[in-house]
Amino acid sequence: MTTKTSLTSPRLVQLQRDLQTGQAQALDLFWQDIGEQGTPLIEVVPGDEVHRLVTFLWKDPGETHNVVIIRGPTRWGDFAKNQMVRLPETNVWYKTYQVRSDMRTTYQLSLNDSLVPLDEVEDWKARTATFQVDPLNPHRYVFPQDEDTPEVPESVVSILELPHAPAQPWISPRTDVAQGNVEMHHFHSALLNNTRRVWVYTPPGYTGSNEPYGLLLLFDGFAYLRAIPTPTILDNLLHEHRLPPLVAVLLDSLDQETRNRELRCSPLLVDALRQELLPWIHEQYHVTTDPAQTIIGGLSAGGLAAAFVGYSASETFGNVLSQSGAFWWNWMLDDDSEAEWLTKQFVGQKKLPLRFYIEVGLLERATTVDQVVTNRHLRDVLQAKGYEASYAEFNGGHEYLCWRGSLANGLLTLLSKK
């Protein structure tokens, strides 16, 4: 289907003009240029240094009914509104967005998408079967396959990174930096009735004879090990004396059902951490019992869980690090319960001895829930109650590509050496 639309991309305006004036090779030359530079097409906005024009492209091999941009600069779930259109009489499908030039995000394309809205999806695997990487974009982000779940393949998405996206200086190994040690254990919880992997990072020069080390406990341990290179980030920060030495414990989340149950404000999880995991950590490693030097953190549901653990056990965990915390969630996802349940608990509770680092991406706005609004709401509540609650927004989505860079920001905010 061909839809008429006004062109805002200067390159596409030029292509259309060339074709209309009879330049028969213009289309082939256009695709040759795109093949060399890759997609999306990024162009300046005349007189505007703050924004860029980003044009997504699809080269039609035939039988294309629609092409939808998935995530990226779009509102997640607005499938019908984010369809490309075809440049008349060509095989060029396109859609242009004007966005801030500090955007970093990932996206996919969906060829011949069903356009079924999020709230009507019954089979998620079938709904996403048409999602794919952008074949003309060589820049990709890979969430690696977990060797413990070989039935779940790696996840690959395309990267959109604009010129003024924040630097991520801590995520790559450096040859001149000493590396800490990572040990994997299997930890059994009688309270939770399960056994999981726990990865423990100890810093270079770790010893049991000095002052106890600070403690960082992160949920979704596999993600914080492989998708977000936490050991490398800590190595680099410690090498430049930006943080005091600490031990990091990366707690596996097992399967999705277990993750959903445990990370949704579960008092049983809090009990397991206090009564089982922490005693085990103190037996095995030389770490502090000072809550002011202890961080509980996580991403998405893990950010929600971290804040709930801090709320429930501030005498143990004095710092909360939340990356895109899912604070919109109802209590145990009960349809009859209150939305933003945890935020409302902080409203009714006297101020606790807690410090917070909270961040969220400006693209985390879906047709079903707005993470930006709910994270801002929690920030406002905490600051009104007198908490030290540092808050940051990045121009990206709900994705590891952004979290891997901003984890260091949270650590520096909560534990930076004075």
From TrEMBL:
Superkingdom per UniProt: Bacteria
NCBIfam families (UniProt xref): PRK10439.1
Compartment(s) of residence: Cytoplasm
Similarity field: Belongs to the Fes family.
Keyword Nucleus: no
Subcellular location, principal: cytoplasm
Protein name as catalogued: Enterochelin esterase N-terminal domain-containing protein
Record bears the keyword Ribonucleoprotein: no
Assigned keywords, A-Z: Cytoplasm, Hydrolase
Organism name: Dictyobacter halimunensis
